Amino acid sequence: MKKYKDKFDKLAHEPVRRLISSLAVPTIITMLVSAVYNMADSFFVGRIDTTSVASIGIVFSVMTLLQAIGFFLGNGSGILLSTYLGEGKKDMAQIYANVSFFTAFISGIIMALAGLFFSDKLAVLLGATPSTIKAASGYLKYILLGSPFILCSFVLNNQLRYQGSAVYSMAGIMSGSILNIVIDPLFIFTFKLGVQGAAVATAISQFVGFIILLSGTYRGDNLRISVKKLRPSAKIFLNIAKNGLPSLARQGVQTVATITLNYACAQYGDAVIAGMSVFNRVMFLGFAVVIGFGQGYQPVCSFNNGAKNYKRVYDGYKFTALITTFVITVISVIGFILAPELIAIFRDDKEVIDVGAMALKAECLALPLIGFSTSSNMLMQSLKIPGKATVLALARQGIFYVPLMLLMPRFLGAEGITYVQPIADALSFILTIFLVAPTLKELRRYKK
Residue 180 in contact with residue 310, Cβ under 8 Å? Predict the structure, then answer.
């Protein structure tokens, strides 16, 4: 196997299939462990009662909001620092890395204060019902108290990936996730903190992961995090915002979608909320593989776009779209066959299982479309085409999902809720074809 001078030489010259796979594997492992960690709360809390499962489902929208802000700043700066590294401008990359990191930390402090003083009111806004308000507000409070470290972890995770240091990213995220799985039952059952114990375990685990990620920035030739390198300006914030907007849209709209789901489910009882909550956690496990490959492609795309090596951009996209479609199709077949058993792992309640399994089976019919849609979205974002990238990011959970969630239960009741996501995915796939076609046509010129 050919030796490369450094990771930047590797990004420029290693065969794209091997390169993307090598970057994707640590990211996929990270995403899968994160998915298991997300499901751990549901699994252990599911040992308490259905109302407790419903309460953490309600607060799930805040976790997606934290992820939205973290990916907004992490991807927004990551795309730029990777492009600057491709252009040989390391000093500029350093500035963007630090501005994004410290912006995340300050934002997290503001959110922690909101959680400390207003968790009850925020839980109601998120869709908590009288039966879930106490557990939901307690869980929310501790999640928000950990938000400075949660946000910074998302930023560092993305920045390390864009530098081609996915292994350091994996080490930080995995360590926090595994620790959370280990200490969850300790805080929930041994210390008898119930739902709040799950949130405390999450906050502690995220802090540990943050420390490991931060230490990764001081390894090798990675960009250093230091207040001495902080050079904020309106132009820098604008560039980060412009390139991070698709990520904010993609993740942020998930928050809106989850809140809409909570309100739609509330009229049908805690079992429906719990069933859809478990469904979302299980779906995240399958979606993690697609996201992992897409994130493995992003630094390759951004770096080679900066280096004006457009053939590698196109070849990498084609490989990513094909491999993610194949993998997610296999996952969808397994999910369809084992839907009731997968939901039952988290809550042994017939009504919860019926709702979750119905939603999972319906979604598995549309899952094979996700590979193309996600790969195309990441292509557009990495090429710094923010308009189309943002529309694509909004499509799945916003443009189509939210209106459908408001309409379908009116005609089909609780069953209509379970059909919303697959229909939204199909419509998003069609929109993606039209929006990405001109860019692919342009890139094909460099195929030969």
Answer: no
Tell me if 261 sits within 8 A of 416, measured CB to CB: no
Cα separation, 382 vs 200, in Å, equals: 36
373-422 tens-digit pLDDT: 999 998 998 888 878 888 888 888 889 999 999 999 998 888 999 999 99
Question: How many Å apart are CA 294 and CA 166, to the nearest integer?
Answer: 13
**Could you tell me which residues come within 8 angstroms of residue 387 by beta carbon, excluding any fewer than 6 positions away?**
none
Match 């091997």 to its residue by tokens.
Answer: 18
Per-residue pLDDT tens over the stretch 69-88: 998 999 899 888 888 888 88
> Between the CA of residue 391 and those of 55, 247, 381, 398, 433, what are the distances in Å?
31, 11, 11, 9, 13
Confidence of residue 4 (pLDDT cuts 50, 70, 90): low
Going along 53-194, which residue ranges are E strands? none
For 65, the 3-state DSSP assignment is helix
Say what the pTM is.
0.74
How far is residue 91's CA from residue 1's CA, in Å, rounded to a whole number? Answer: 32
> φ and ψ at 432, to 5 degrees?
-60, -40
The answer to whether 383 touches 86, Cβ cutoff 8 Å, is no
**68 neighbors 254 (Cβ within 8 angstroms):** yes
- Distance from chain centroid for Cα 15: 27
Return the structure tokens found at 59: 């607060």
Contact 286, 336 (CB under 8 A): no
Residues 6+ apart with CB under 8 A from 368: 325, 328, 329, 332
| N-term to C-term CA, the chain | 24
Q: In Å, what is the CA distance from 294 to each residue of 82, 223, 369?
A: 15, 22, 14
CB atoms within 10 A of CB 326: 12
CA nearest to 214, candidates 102, 381, 292: 102
